[in-house]
Amino acid sequence: MKFFVSIVLTAFLAFVAGIYSTIPWWSFAVTSLIVAIAIHQKPGKAFLSGFLGLFLLWVGLSLFKDAANEHILSAKVAKILPLGGSYIALILVTGIIGGLVSGLSSVTGSYVKKSK
Amino acid sequence: MRIVPFLISGLCTAGLILVLNTQLTVGGSKTPRLGYFLSPQLGFWQNAESTNTDFSGELKLNGLKGKVDVFMDDRLVPHIYAENDLDAYYVQGYIHAKFRLWQMEFQTHVAAGRLSEIVGEERLATDRFFRRLGMVYGAEQTMANMDTDPEMKATVDAYADGVNAYIQSLKPEQIPFEYKLLDYKPEAWTPLKTYLFLMYMSYDLTGGAAATDLKMTNAKNYFGYEDFNKLYPNVHDSLNPIIPSGTLFADPAIIPVAPLNSDSVYLKYTISSTAMAPVVPDKDNGSNNWAVSGSKTKSGRPILCNDPHLGLNLPSLWFEVQINTPSHNTYGASFPGSPAVIIGFNDNIAWGVTNAGRDVLDYYDIQFKDSTLTEYMYNGEWTQAEHRKEVIKVKGKPASIENMALTVFGPVMYDNAYKNSSTDGKYLAVHWTANMPGTGLQTFYKLNRSKNYDEYINATSLWSCPGQNFVFASKTNDIAIKQQGAFIARWERQGDFVMPGTDDSYAWQGIIPLEENPMMKNPGRGFVSSANQMSTDSTYPYYLGAANNFPLYRGIIINRKLSEMNNITVEDMQHLQMDNYNVFAEMARPVLLKYLAINTLNADEKKYVDLLANWNLRSDVNEKGPTIFKCIWDSLENEVWGDEISKSKLPFPRPDAPTLLESLLRNASFIFEDNINTTDKKETIHDDVLAAFKKAYTYLVKLEKEDRLEWARFKSTKVNHLLKLPALSRLQLPIGGGEHIINAAKETHGPSWRMIVHLTDEIEAYGVYPGGQSGNPGSKFYDSFVDAWAAGKYYRIVFIGKEAAAKSEKMKWHLTFTNS
To answer: Is B39 within 8 Å of A98 when comparing Cβ atoms?
Structure first.
């Protein structure tokens, strides 16, 4: 239960922070840290929930944008980056990048309290 | 709290964020800041525009006087209906920025020598070149001049206000894609930027001389003046000028006189100089335009056509727009970065432009007293030089500062701080009409409002640089063409080479009075045309410049076709703009076949000769003939000129194609046919053609193996993104044509806007350009015209009044602008 609540809360707070576009893109590292402190889990689980929270959020948001755009831009960016022009690879990379930062931040938060 | 693991994982997190927040260098280029770039709420995903985007809206903006309605048609062309002119230009600025902001800023950064600021040190050479050429200086001069005209100042200011209104409305996640890719932000727009953009067009259309004059000087020094004259003649035999041969010209108001010592000091005197511009405008920057009178059309009304040939880029140089106010109702192609319409039509007239190609940039060799550049010798006295400081900011590095001296001739471009091995020790000042106070947009502003021939003449008479051939047609059945610009009254060969600058004897002796510029109204032949060829024959009283400044063959074929045509329809004109007949090959192929010893060739080699001999002379998409012809011809040019060029240490321009062809057609003994690298033998043209064929053959075999013998595959026309990123460009377009051909689509250069206007009571107009109205690579309107352009298709232009627009099914979106 804690695990799922963490994931949802991580994603939700990251989304809310992201609405304020004048603050940096990594604002979710702060919200993920707070979630991990508030909902204490073991480091492994904290990482996974932090990772999944952002992974799912960023994959979801980019899928939504990409579908409406009919892959026009993602196909081009996936050639520049370079990911062989695959929009699926680009969406996954997007999710993984967000997930890694958030996961690491959540691990950090999990060390604030001592494990029982 | 577990301090150690907390610190370690905290540092890891911070480290990862830092890496993802930094531009990394990978394989020589910089990545975006990946975390930012990929962030769906901030980064590039925000630029993935929905294919169903609703562009409608109600905007309240500061600075408008009345209400402005903008209807956007299904091609995303805005039709602006305003209650006064300044509101219209304000909204034009807003809309340009909405769809093309990054491009507008990037192009003016290029012109202003500010690329290092966003890209880094690798663009410093380009920036220095543009600064030293006086691009900013020239833009300031013209702006200061035009600011004295309240109407033009208000126009450019209103446009800037509109651009800034858009920039201010942008949220951080809404900035265009390329800013995110290169990691910088838009800055405020200024009226100067409009003038910088126009300055860039002047450079693109007349700045080639900045490199040509130095190379021509090298060529003259290498060959000596006698041979030079044969290789770089003043006029070609087959010239078919804009103003037909035999036209009588009035006695000139200025009779330019060459200095007495020009023979020994200038023409035959040899000094070495070389410098290559980092950005050289395409030699074929130019265009086609023509107008046929009602006597030659089926409808009895004139038809006007124009296709300016420029670098093909995405986002496109052009943006279609209709501007409708109580004072005028105009449609056409506009420049993002500038108010008004540049090539277009209104309720009464249509106009178009091609480049005049006249030389308006010269170098003067200046003598300074010492290396501080404070005093220079002029008319026997040490004269005080003014100075100008140019600060070039460099991303991640200290700024680079250019200190330039200003002389009576203009800014000293090459000096002890800006030089290369061959300009070492020399001080070369640039005298360029674009650096002088110009008239900016005034001509186009007035053309937008012109109702008849007299107003067209009045509007064009103000134009100074870059010199253009303005073609004109009106509903009242007048057609005309006028070559207009501030053209220098030159003596023969004046300014083709670096000139002595110690006194005024080589200075410009005047600007040709505008009534003496070549022009023609309602000629008996029923048409006027221009295709960058020399505007007159050699009876014109002023020197027009060396013949290699003027493409020859498009003019010949256009005039031939238009003479033959009658009962002309819009469709005929569309076919003519897309015509792929190669008149150069028509003249050159017999020469190649005549000198080629076919009986010495084997069967495989003969196969290509047969393909060439049986070719229909059309450079169509699937023809193999044009590829074979071009490979052999280019190879022949290498045989003939390659030995001379490789012997010379300094770069010089390869003599142009007509020079070689006409030498061979004259059958005169031709000294350059001998390969000067062989001493045991004196090569003849027969040897050269055979050697050229053998080399071309090897290459053609390779091409055939790669399946690239068909013309379009071989030519490989593309429309490059301004950053030259293949992912954002359109490559390998199936289009014929090319150099010397009316459909002048070369590899990266060609018809950048095709327009046909039929001046019937209700104007019937067509247009297409190789791009799309949106500059956003994430929009479906980014490249939506490219395929139609390549296929030779046209869009019927929607040109209607406000009430009709409100009801029209063609109009998909409606934007309203009111004062906040």
So the answer is: yes
* B9/A104 CB distance under 8 A: yes
Of A29, A62, A72, Cβ closest to residue B40: A62
**Residue B181, min C-alpha distance to chain A (Å):** 10
Residue B333, in any domain of the structure = no
**Structure token digits, residue B253:** 């108001």
How far is residue B400 from each of residues B128, B200, B279, B395, B623, measured CA to CA in Å?
Answer: 9, 22, 19, 11, 51
Domain extent for B701 = 583-617+624-709
State the nearest Cα–Cα gap between A77 and chain B, in angstroms: 7
Q: Which helix (H) or strand (E) holds B212?
A: helix B209-223
Rounded to the nearest angstrom, the gap between the alpha carbon of residue B490 and the centroid of all alpha carbons in its chain is 24
In a domain, B750, yes or no: no
CB contact under 8 Å between B13 and A68, yes or no, is: no
For residue B469, what are the β-bridge partners? B354, B483
Structurally, how many domains does chain B consist of?
A: 1
Nearby residues of B607 by Cβ (< 8 Å), 6 or more positions away: none
> What is the C-alpha separation between B181 and B171, in angstroms, rounded?
17
DSSP letter (8 states) at residue B400: E
Q: Tens digit of pLDDT for each residue in B172-217?
A: 999 999 999 999 999 999 999 999 999 999 999 998 888 888 888 8
Residue B42: per-residue pLDDT = 96
Tell me: cis bond preceding B518? Omega within 30 of 0 counts. no
Contacts of A68 in chain B (CB under 8 A): 48, 50-52
Q: What count of other Cβ atoms lies within 10 Å of the Cβ of residue B703?
A: 19
What is the predicted ipTM?
A: 0.97
Strand B361-365: give its sheet, edge to edge. B412-414, B428-432, B361-365, B499-500
- In tens, the pLDDT along B717-739 reads 999 999 999 999 999 999 999 99
Helix (H) or strand (E) holding B660: helix B657-666
- Please judge whether B779 and A62 are an interchain contact, meaning their C-beta atoms are less than 8 angstroms apart: no
Is-contact B772 B787, C-beta < 8 A? no
Q: Is the dihedral of CA B318, B320, B325, B328 positive or negative?
A: positive
> What contacts A96, CB < 8 A, 6 or more positions away?
A55
Tokens 């070609």 identify what position?
B236
CA–CA gap between residue B558 and residue B742 (Å, rounded): 7
Sign of the four-CA dihedral B249, B251, B252, B258: positive
Inter-chain residue contact A68 with B726, CB threshold 8 Å = no
CA distance B174 to B168: 11
Note which residues in 768-797 of chain B have CB less than 8 A from chain A: 777-780, 782
Is B727 in the A-facing interface, judged by CB distances under 8 Å? Answer: yes
Strand positions, DSSP E, B208-360: 286-292, 303-311, 313-314, 319-325, 328-334, 343-346, 349-355
- Model confidence over A83-116: pLDDT tens digits? 999 999 999 999 999 999 999 999 999 998 865 5
Nearest CA-CA distance, residue B757 and chain A, Å: 34
Q: Is residue B156 part of a domain?
A: no
Measure the CA–CA gap between B746 and B738, rounded to whole angstroms: 5
φ/ψ of residue B71, rounded to 5: -100, 130
- Residue whose pair of structure tokens reads 């309720």 in the numeric block: B347
Quick one: DSSP state of residue B366?
-
Q: What angle do CA B714, B717, B720 make, to 5 degrees?
A: 140
pLDDT for B675 beyond 90:
no
Tokens linked to B311: 């670098």
The shortest C-alpha distance from A6 to chain B (Å) reads 18
Contact A74, B57 (CB under 8 A): no
Q: Give the closest residue to B15 by CA, choosing from A101, A43, A58, A102.
A: A101
The DSSP bridge pattern shows strands B754-758 and B303-311 to be antiparallel
For chain A, give the longest Cα–Cα distance.
Answer: 51
- Single-letter amino acid, residue B569: T
